[in-house]
## 1
Amino acid sequence: MQKVNYNLVMKQQLSALQGKPRLLLHVCCAPCSSGVLPKLKEYSDITLYYYNPNTYPKDEYLLRAEQFAKLTDLPLVVCDYNHNEFLDAVKGFEQNQEGGTRCQKCIELRLENSFNYAKTNNYDYVTTTLSISPHKDAQFINSCGKKLQQQYNVTYLYADFKKDNGFLFSINESKKYDLYRQEYCGCEFSFTTKN
């Protein structure tokens, strides 16, 4: 199957926008967000949505959430920490390799929750910062977004934020804003892999 250039698709979507629609941006952390916000701010009215029950432990979850205040004054919704939601979603896949089925279940969980919030609160668009990571499969992330936009009737903004040196830009922005940059994706299973 041929890969879709989701960076190009995003640029086409953004250039066709009328006015500044309300965008719910699921954010995994401030460093990744630092590489995404400059690409979206002029096109949309953004609310940051921090829903990451995969993050372990709770102190790490809170530390990552606090970093957004260094980066931006955009509205930020910080969801209650409920790690059991993640554990339930990945049950049976805990020992999968990084980037495998466990990670896909995690991405599905976070995106579906984001779509549900967007639908309930009348947002026009949803997207996520996850594709900025070179360790995340943009094809999979965008296929989830496509499926969920049909289910929730909220438009998904396709993206592959790592393109056009997006990841490198986020590293430089993280240094500029003195952001805490974590050493593992988030869950205890990715933490174990790194240590």
## 2
Amino acid sequence: MLASHSSTSSSLQYERLGSVLQQAGLISRPQIEVALRDQTEYWDLLLGEILDLRGWVPKQTSDFFVKQFLKLQAGNQYKPIGLYLQEAALLNDQQIQKILQQQSHINAKFGTLAVHNGWLKLQTLAFLLRYLPTPPPSAQREGRNTDEGILDCNSESVSKSTILQLEQTLDTWIS
């Protein structure tokens, strides 16, 4: 959990959570500012709780980024992206099953289909791919359908041309 609400480091940690959620395309800067302002009035609530109460970000999503995301970045334990998305409450079981079903019919990457179906923002996918562990070489040799390489994961933002290219590729795969 984060440090107590009264410390200066605590507000910096909350600001970092807001920044991470913003970079992931899950919340806007004005929403972060409102939630931080709310927190001065409701000091007993965590930032994630405020975001959830306002209906902006589910608590499970905030908890994922607070409790697990930093560990995932530091570790080398790879899991398929669908599991991360499920742990972060960004996809539910039915959506995951639908994507897996789609993959059985077309050669498309899991995250790409999540974006195409409108369940995940491209910005969120790009953010996660930039920071989460990459699949081991054995997974790539075995032909597992990962999302590595679909975007330039080292870029700080996704360009409009990349989005257009992805959309065109998706249209080709789906049609």
